[in-house]
Fold these 4 entries.
Entry 1:
Amino acid sequence: MQSVWAESGKFKSHDRLGDANTDVLVIGGGIAGILIAKLLKESGTDAILIEKNKIAGGVTKNTTAKITCQHDLIYDRIYKNFGHEATEKYAAANLQALNKYREIIARENIDCAFENISTFLYTKENEQKLIDEQHAMQGLGFQSALVAQTELPFPIQAALELKDQAQFNPLMFLSELTTDLKIYEDTQALSIFGNEVTTNNGKIKAKKIIVATHFPFINNPGYYFMRQHQERSYVMALDNATIKNAYLGIDDEYYSLRSYGDKILFGGMGHRTGESPQDCYDRLQAAAKSCYPNSQINCMWSAQDCMTHDGIPYIGNYATSLDHVYVATGFNKWGMTSSMVSAIILTDLINEKQNEFADLFSPSRMNFLASAKNLVVDGLETISGLANRLELPNEKLLEVEVSKGGIVMHGDEKIGIYRQSENV
């Protein structure tokens, strides 16, 4: 199954990289890594990008490619957990990212089906949540309004419109963006030791290293496998169906919709990765037929996204003990704006420039009230998954005290676990 974007970007092939030296090494050839390499080049910084397969694959080619500051009910969530100043910073960072796309596309005259649109959050039963979201957005410089009528093919209780947002074809955009960058494919980073990255082809020495691999590949330090989880969602491109703007439902049963040319991208049926509910495509197809009886499926695909505990991406130093290594992950299904936010922040950090948003997105942040519940859930899910997959022996589990976490060896691998009770 391939996405609607799969055949649209024309990328040249790139050589493998063996031993090398560079000022900055970017690991990961998705949109985040490419944007980071692009802005570093514009700042005059020498950077090399490596990708283990081919660039613009994986999550990047499976996005719905909405470039929006409207990230579900994010502003009410940040306002309640972190306060108004943090909410302002999140809004400003994403608005800056949206405008940076506009600047690059206009300056370089990139043909990528870029359109200015409105985005909507809609509900059939939770209007108060939209009222709270709009309240949190007041004073942030957005043009938002609650409306009762939309172009959706089903009745709603209310929708929150955010004007002056955008959408595009990400592969057409990236195929133009990558023509003058130092990119190497089929080069997989295996480990980082000091300033040296070992790959499947050799060793690369870099003064600074950026990990932009969707899910960070170094477990310790950082422990990102305990600090975020992954969710999978499904999308279909429908022929013979039309819509002008972009929509996302906030209810338990929700759909995501946007136009692309003469098609609609119709998504939904999201779930935590590993739960594996049955017949997601069949149920999504039934929903699409109910909404658009005359439509036909052009193609279908799925995407997997990293979800952080507090809804804010991790962008900044990988860990306090690795001050020369940086990370961009946990985009919470909003990879287009979050990738550009990452590129802007990390370019400033690499060049030792002050960035007003870096503290909000810093991976070392901790807000216990915002994170505790999800930290426990994610930790237990991770432990359960590891225990089921790795079949850790009881004596290994007993090495960790009750109600505490720790690191145990499983073969040659270090595993982070949390022990909930005396029983193992």
Entry 2:
Amino acid sequence: MICHRLKPASLLAVFALLLGLLAGCAAPPRTQRPDVIVRDAPPPTSVQPEPATPTLRKLADEAAALRPFAVSGLTLRFLDAVRSLPPAGTRLAYINETTREYFSAAERAALPEAQRARLAEVSLDEYRYYYTKYGSPLAYLRPLEIAAAHGMTDLQGRRVLDFGYGGIGHLRLMASLGAHVVGVDPDSYLDALYSEPRDQGTVAAMRESRRASGTLTLAHGYWPKDAPMVARVGGAFDLILSKNTLKKGYVKPERRTDRRQQVNLGVTDEVFIKALYDALKPGGLLVIYNVSPRQADKGGYNPQADGRSPWPRESYERAGFQVLAINTADDEAIRNVGRALGWDRTANNEPIDLNTSIFALYTVLVRPR
């Protein structure tokens, strides 16, 4: 079966206004914790070097704007790590404009001449490298804040899986905090964009940090459907994240929808949920976080707007999970993130009311020890 994963076009239509480019559990009080000690943050008086490129400067500005909304030491370190992101330059990829399939230069070279002739060259600059089609990687602040609130306070030496990762930026940030990160996604666009050897492997620790280096692995294909993907992804994860991929509207829509707006996991619900459970260490967390536009008016159904968990509590519990939270609203927090990232203005600088146009739900599960 073919997985049509889309953090889709109509969500892009809403989030093109909200995010510029954005498209696969009970929230604690958002008060500053007095016990948080951010050992990796530089002294307040230190002067940071100016980021080298416009895209890196944009990310640094976003990190500064988000800092008032970072509660935990984990998310403060995540934002601080932005200053360690490397320049990416421009990449060349190739697209079959009929099938919308992308190819790297090496993949193109391996094709027969007739197939190569049907490909168009695409230049992907550094902005695309870090923002891809889905917006700022720093929107992962909220899923990580929720993980921290449920005990994942440090990523040093931890194994992290992101199902439907959508972009490399947040993966590099987590790896620079000492995590061993695996990103899973079937999108050929990402496979072509991140095709250079330097895109994977060891990631140096964030600057001015005594942390050990982390690692980054990208796995492009259908997990857990395909055995080679299962082998590449591995297991024993401390944390599994999935943002804007495991939505009820995508996986189990309540009404018939366009296949391009569906996520076909390729296996039964029971097999997929059990694969998530088996991939975690005992005590490991799964955080599903979905940002959604407002549901369609007048009885319509927009699958992108149905950000609930695809499965009920009972399905998770049958697989062995303990459900810590399910379909818990995070609206106020994601709107704060959205304002910091500029989602409240159109490209023409017209205001957008995020209170009526953007919503978030999350689910947190744990594999018992």
Entry 3:
Amino acid sequence: RLNIIRIHMPALRERRDDVPLLLNYFLDKYNKELNRNIKGFSREAIEMLTGYDWPGNIRELQNLVERIVALAGDEEQISLETLPLESVSHNVIKKDLRGALADFEKRYLKNALAEAGGNQTKAAEILGVHRTTLISKMKELGLK
């Protein structure tokens, strides 16, 4: 009798844009309940939590925010350092590490190219790689 009308509710991992909204909603809720005054989440913390797959769905997100608010010291904002990392998947950390490495490589290549005046052959020499390796890496990282 409960299956009269089916409503498909996608998992939170399929609605990642909702994560920041839910984080703020639960933060407001637990600020009031626990008499706290945490202003919000840092951009890095939001990115980390948005990248998580949330196998426990919204209930897991809600419990995490409640725990963060309850255990937070005098922080005005929840930062990446404040997050209980054991609560988020190691997959998120791997994704963040890959992203950080790609960002570093991109900056490193841009600096070498700038130092070489845009000359790819000179930039490759500066980096100690073959020109084709440099070009391949540039394509991989979405550089010219």
Entry 4:
Amino acid sequence: RLEVRLDGRLVPIEDLRPRSRRLGWSRRRKARAPMGWLPPIRVLRPVVRAAGRWSAAARRRLIGLLAGSPPARARYRDAWVLMDRIYEADDSGERLFEHLRRTRPDINAWFVLARSSPDWPRLAAAFPDRLVARGSLAWQLLMHNAAWLLSSHADLEVVEPREIAASSRARRWKFAFLQHGVMKDDLSVWLNQRNIDLFVVSTDPELESVAGDGTAYVYTHREARNTGLPRFDGLLRRAAEIPPEARDLVILAPTWRTWLTLPSTVAERRRQLVADVRDTEFFRQWQGLISAPAIAEAAGRAGLRLAFMPHPNLQPILDDLALPPHVVPLSFNGSDVQEIYARCALLVTDYSSVAFNVALLDRPVVYFQFDREAVLSGGHMGRPGYFDYERHGFGPVARDLESAVRAVVEAIDRGPVPEDEYLERINRTFSNRDGRACERVVAAVEELSRPCRARMEA
């Protein structure tokens, strides 16, 4: 029996923990209770749904008690939770999850995705026991016990889900920002609001733009690590499997603009376009490039196919653009995006980080920047960063439609190899194209998981 005496006098011991903790599992009750006492989650779901009539505080308390129970702790303790977008997979989160299941079964890794996602059937078939539906009871128990959340996106609904943030057992995990592209713009205003414990980058200039002295970011070399994107490993493997004669796509891939879309919500699977999108300069310029006869003729001579693949936030524009018969529409939903990049013979984009994907594979790029002033003056996400398209880009920069058509035709006629100047830039940019990005990310997470004293001694 524990006793406390002060100045020789026996004093009472008061339990100062919150009441919800006092009603949790004591050490003695844990040892006495059988591990199988808690019914399966499918049996508990009606109970949780019935709790919908309770107050929010009571529902949070119920979830907290379930999350702290021995079965939930045994199943989800110290979990690594991986995800990409809420409604989409097939990015760095999924690639790292596949790596963990293949090479590190000792790590308690889970993948989270909305059940309505088109990627759900594919992942459910491959990982039936490791896929968790976002918003479900299992997801809440998982997040309450997670050690790490690792995601290619840092949207607020990903990093700080409202259902968990409102709980008394709110976020105990660390967050690893895996990124879904090489960051070239200054996104510090947005990302400084996130509590990022591991910030993955892919190039040395990108690393210095985030962690170097005098930058606008709050992160240092402790959080920012040049590991490479996890999905770069799979992309390099896929590209090696595609023979040169199968690289048959000229991909036109513009990024989105904040003024072309409505604000997103968690309930929506994708952003909605503004009503007058067909009347915008963006729409007219890209329609002109897609329909240019000179580009169609050049592609025909080279035996290439034209494809239009707008940013995920602009995917609804595929319903509005009148694509010529020889142009193939490409969607991110349900597509093998890595195979698309591996088959790319030429990329035509504006400001998209997709250019880094194809440059990683030594493929040529053309930039079409008719609205450069509006985008780079802060009208879109972020501000201009360390990357200058004329000095650091992987291909020529066109400022108007006529110049863009001419640059695309010249690139097609030259063949699927960058000019020497741009090939040299590519080699300077990517210092580690060894296909081991996933290994480096895992090593960084494990290093940051050790106590501070152990890290200092190491």
